[in-house]
């Protein structure tokens, strides 16, 4: 059986069997203290979203940030080199074109 088909059948069986469960008994009435509660008041999003202060940089942190940025750029340059050297790449390509 194909993996997709078996997964679909398993999902279908799970959905069918979940319909066989008994629901818990729920009270028919709402208690008095909950019946008197009102809905929450909606607040505009502008009032509840926080304002993020701009990043602070001073004479002490700027050199640290610059050196960290330089290290990250150097690391990115090292990672940007090809993983497979040209000779191996050519040998692999001839094996594919046969």
Automatic annotation (TrEMBL):
<feature type="signal peptide">
    <location>
        <begin position="1"/>
        <end position="27"/>
    </location>
</feature>
<keyword id="KW-0732">Signal</keyword>
<feature type="region of interest" description="Disordered">
    <location>
        <begin position="46"/>
        <end position="98"/>
    </location>
</feature>
<feature type="compositionally biased region" description="Basic and acidic residues">
    <location>
        <begin position="56"/>
        <end position="73"/>
    </location>
</feature>
<protein>
    <recommendedName>
        <fullName>Beta-barrel assembly machine subunit BamF</fullName>
    </recommendedName>
</protein>
